[in-house]
# Entry
Amino acid sequence: MTFFACCAAHSGPIFHMVSYAMACGVAPMAAVSIYSVEGLAGLGGRLLYGVLGDRLGVKPVLITGLAIQAAVIAAYLAVGRLEQFYVLAVIFGATYGGVMPLYAVLAREYFGPRIIGTVFGAATMLSSLGMSFGPLAGGMIYDAYASYSWLFIGSALVGLGAAGIAIANGIRVDQHMQSSIPEILAVGDAASYRHWFTGGDVRLESVQNATDQARLAARTIVGHAEPFAAVPWFWSDIGDMKLQMVGLTQGGDSHVVLGEPAENRFSIYHYAGNRLLGIESVNRPADHMLGRKMLGAGFSPAPHTVAAGPDALKAALAAFSQDEPARASA
# Structure
């Protein structure tokens, strides 16, 4: 959505720039040269933003570029002389030219090489829709109001929206997977929400999370809404190692290790104080399954119980489950 909004924001001003400059009193041939300056500035912008992305991180540079783009689009409303157009054309061209390649880098970082072609193909399709929307909207606005002012105002707002989407790290949803517009739902790695387990904002990229949220979204759509309360878990096979994770370990301040790390058969239990946050297991699937039961039941064993081994954990979980009716009545 950021890619779509970014392209929708700058495409209208790009395609209508010559006509706008002429409406401001700039001679036709001089007005055409503004477009050329934008294009030349875009060449340098690609190098500049690429270097900044390598040094400072791609996402912060992208967000900054989107904010600059929105500000420059709005600034076009205040210019009228050719030299002013040239100054803004250098900044505008460098910015929109510089941010465009960054989306490919982000896609590579988020999704990896295995599906990068599919992901970026879909992203490029959305960007193309944005590029086609801007000029059409600009023409319709001019025909309706005989002025380009609303084109630049609207494009600047859409540009700010693109930056906001990037900052938000996904589509914000509630515990029913509904966005601020209840009829629009989001799930999977597109959804950002306050997680019941950590109390913090998260956006999880995993198949199981997407599946759990899709089931909940379907229930929400048919009128059976209920809060999202699935325990997050993940897995991956790398060679002869089975990696399994349950819970979310951000904010942990201590851990307990079970098994033999030297033999690639171990689990790490992460704690924040005395609260179990999550378990990361390598070739110990029984630990993972027991961890899912514990976290799903809301049971946080003491670190010394974990250190005593799986049998002690099973006994502690059984005792906790037996006491559940008493806790519920209390």
Residues 58 and 105 are 7 Å apart (CA to CA). The first strand starts at residue 171 and ends at 172.
